[in-house]
Design a protein that fits this description.
heterodimer; A: mainly alpha; MetI-like fold; 2 domains; flat; disordered N terminus; disordered C terminus; B: alpha/beta; D-Maltodextrin-Binding Protein, domain 2; 10-stranded mixed β-sheet; two-stranded antiparallel ribbon; about 45% helix
Chain lengths: ~325, ~400
């Protein structure tokens, strides 16, 4: 174990990424006999982590650095980067009410996801976790939309939501004809219409995730609780939910990041319209950046999106996921 | 035709080596794919040492991703799809486009005509069109008859009267695919063509400055027209060409009576309906005159598709573009019904009835104005489309359209 620890310290010192150590002071005793083993371990580490690191650097880090560089220039995408304009693109983007509106829409989607999708998928997962007839069929049905590609989902719903289309017909047949709206054409409704489609598409993912989490809740605990006279509701509240905590926190993380990066569905269904009422950060940057041959400006918008996602990820790790990941780290370190 | 091409070929030099020209175009399926394949084969027969490698690529991928990247690389294709106007002007700054002015001087007037000017940048020819597009009204003759409309409208007042007649028989008078923004732009641009004098229009386009009263007037005309409630329900979310609920689909299925669209519209409608007779059910008429407007009512909005050669290519490339604009290939273009052939000699090969009306109108047109979003630099064009789409959605004034162009032009 001491060897492992020393290797890790070496790795950190040499710039290799590794788990953050809680108390860096406890380095030391390396047995001389471990030396050849240490070299081999380093080779192993290099061989195992190396390729992944190279890929990560090539396809994640380098593009980020390049995007930041582009964002400082007025650049049409052709010819050399010559017109350096500093932070002008960032100022222009943040000054644009359409871009600010797009950021707001992303946050609305994130908030709505947590408020509506979490209880629905959690509730459905709890129901589907019980023994009931056709359990597999129900699970399959709820998960099916998640398997359909986002583009297909968008086209299907685009057709169903046309005026007088499938959705309107069904509502009329149910006696709800008075509630029919121009779902995608009304600037006050379009955002929420899209949210319903997003929920339809992604609810299955939450359900599957929670069902998996529920398998980790020991049956003994629930049995003990019911022997002690706990009602099913109490059992869920005091045993199931706390034990599902890590899964819920991961789901929230994925849902928020997904909401911030929303693109395909909106692009196909509304192109961010009407009058930018359903724009998201990415639809904005695709239209105003890349389709407008303003690659510098588009990159600036992309970097802003990256900063928002990154800041959220860091803060969420720090404050919400810390307990969940702490266990994993201590296992490696000790 | 073949003889004249061969004479010129002696000027082209390959030093006896076999050469291959890579040709990126957007004809991934349908009749045009065959036309291009055959053109490449026929050219190879004429010049056995030259092979044209036909590489069809999906349109948006080609336009937005492949071409920009290729022009930044040191290995662009020899020949590629070119839409002309402002995007061509932006591409020219890459230094990778071949100046075709001298190579095309002897034939561009006779084979292509005035439309070729849309592929010039500062008077130099960097691309050559193979087809042209005109925007006008595609209408259902059966629905017009049912509504008691005896002749197509020639003024906006008549069009508004027809809108009321069509409402009375319970069809959407006009379909518009506002989701896609560019169909909205056709409306505003046509009002601008009718309101502005030709000299104002030309100056405005050349200087990227719409700050003239006639462009404000165009916005006001459009506001008044929208007030007449001419469009299909929920048009702000209607796609232009996707599915039966699109604007093209609504006309194809008789739920809407007309649409202001490009000449390609019948080809879009065909797969969206089970009506086998759709091509004969459709008629075509030009955008009506606006009373008091300074523009010539025969001015027409349109564009086209063409090709550019890169500096990577040999001088067989302009020869190939000449061959594409020669009658045998142009007849194929006419049959493909993706656009109207640029070579007038092939006009008689057009089979769709409405397209025949459109091309005869084009021949008499005072001026063909390229769609503003193509004519302007790309960022300005996109800003204009966006501002007009917002205007349709009730967000903005006639002034905001002009301001959007000014703002984008400044950053250009």
């Amino acid at each position: 174990m001491a060897t492992d620890r020393a290797t890790l310290d070496q790795g950190l010192a040499s710039g290799l990424p590794g788990p953050t150590l809680a108390s860096p002071g406890r380095t030391g005793t390396v047995r001389p006999a471990a030396r050849p083993g240490r070299a081999r371990r380093r080779l192993e580490l290099a061989a195992l982590i190396g390729p992944a690191l190279v890929l990560f650097a090539c396809f994640v880090l380098v593009p980020i650095v390049i995007a930041v560089r582009y964002s400082l220039y007025n650049w049409s995408g052709y010819g050399p980067l010559s017109d350096f304009i500093g932070l002008h693109n960032y100022r222009a983007a943040l000054d644009d009410p359409v871009f600010r509106g797009a950021i707001l829409h992303n946050f609305i989607y994130a908030a709505l996801s947590v408020v509506f999708q979490l209880p629905i998928s959690l509730g459905t997962a709890l129901l589907l976790n019980r023994k009931l007839r056709g359990q597999r069929v129900f699970r399959l049905v709820t998960f099916a939309p998640y398997v359909v590609s986002e583009a297909t989902t968008a086209v299907i719903w685009l057709l169903m939501l046309q005026p007088g289309g499938f959705v309107d017909q069904v509502m009329k047949d149910m006696g709800l004809g008075g509630l029919v709206q121009t779902w995608l054409a009304d600037i006050h409704i379009v955002l929420y219409t899209l949210f319903v489609v997003i929920t339809w598409k992604y609810i299955g993912f939450g359900i599957i995730l929670f069902l998996a989490g529920l398998q980790g809740v020991p049956v003994e605990l629930k049995e003990a609780a019911s022997l002690d006279g706990a009602t099913p509701a109490q059992s869920v509240r005091h045993i199931t939910l706390p034990l599902l905590g890590p899964t819920i926190r991961i789901w929230v993380f994925l849902a928020v990041i997904g909401s911030l990066q929303l693109f395909d569905l909106v692009w196909i269904m509304t192109l961010g319209g009407p009058a930018n009422a359903s724009d998201t950060m990415i639809t904005y940057l695709i239209y105003n950046g890349f389709q407008s041959n303003e690659f510098g400006y588009g990159s600036a918008a992309a970097v802003i999106l990256f900063i928002i996602c990154f800041a959220f990820a860091l803060l969420y790790q720090r404050f919400a996921l810390r307990r969940d990941t702490a266990g994993a780290l201590t296992r490696i370190v000790n | 035709m073949v003889a004249s091409v061969t004479t010129t070929a002696t000027a082209a030099t390959t030093n006896g080596k076999n050469i291959t020209l890579t040709w990126w175009n957007n004809a991934t399926a349908g009749v045009l794919l065959n036309v291009w394949d055959n053109a490449a084969k026929a050219f190879h027969k004429m010049y056995p040492n030259v092979t044209i490698q036909n590489v069809p690529i999906q349109n948006e991928v080609l336009q937005n991703t492949k071409i920009p990247l290729a022009l930044q690389s040191n290995n662009p294709p020899d020949i590629y799809q070119q839409w002309g106007g402002g995007s061509e002007a932006t591409q020219v700054t890459s230094g990778k486009l071949m100046d075709l002015t001298a190579a095309s001087a002897s034939w561009v007037k006779s084979e292509v005509g005035a439309v070729a000017s849309g592929w010039q940048v500062k008077g130099r020819q960097y691309g050559i069109p193979y087809d042209l597009h005109v925007v006008g009204f595609w209408y259902r003759k059966d629905l017009f008859a049912k509504a008691g409309i005896k002749s197509v409208p020639t003024t906006i007042a008549q069009l508004e009267a027809d809108v009321a007649k069509l409402r009375a028989i319970n069809v959407a008078p006009i379909a518009v695919g506002s989701r896609d923004r560019w169909p909205d732009a056709f409306w505003w641009e046509y009002f601008a063509l009718r309101e502005c004098s030709l000299s104002t229009l030309k100056t405005a386009m050349a200087t990227i400055n719409l700050n003239y009263p006639c462009f404000v007037k165009a916005g006001q005309d459009l506001t008044a027209f929208i007030k007449a409630n001419p469009f299909n329900t929920g048009y702000l979310a209607t796609p232009a060409q996707t599915g039966a609920g699109s604007s093209a689909g609504l006309v194809a299925n008789g739920q809407a009576a007309m649409e202001l669209q490009g000449d390609w519209d019948p080809g879009v409608m065909q797969p969206l309906t089970t009506n086998k007779n759709i091509l004969n059910d459709l008629g075509w008429f030009p955008f009506p005159a606006v009373s008091g407007g300074a523009g010539n009512p025969t001015e027409i909005l349109g564009g086209g598709d063409g090709f550019s050669c890169t500096t990577h290519a040999t001088n067989y490339c302009p020869l190939f573009l000449k061959y594409i604009d020669s009658k045998p290939v142009q007849v194929g273009v006419a049959h493909a019904a993706v656009g109207l052939p640029v070579n007038a000699a092939a006009a008689s090969a057009i089979t769709v009835p409405g397209e025949k009306t459109a091309i005869s109108y084009y021949k008499k047109a005072a001026y063909l104005q390229t769609y503003f979003d193509i004519a302007f630099p790309t960022n300005v064009g996109q800003a204009l489309d966006s501002a007009i789409a917002n205007f349709f959605a009730g967000s903005g004034t006639p002034q905001t359209i002009i301001q959007a162009v000014a703002k984008a032009a400044k950053s250009h």
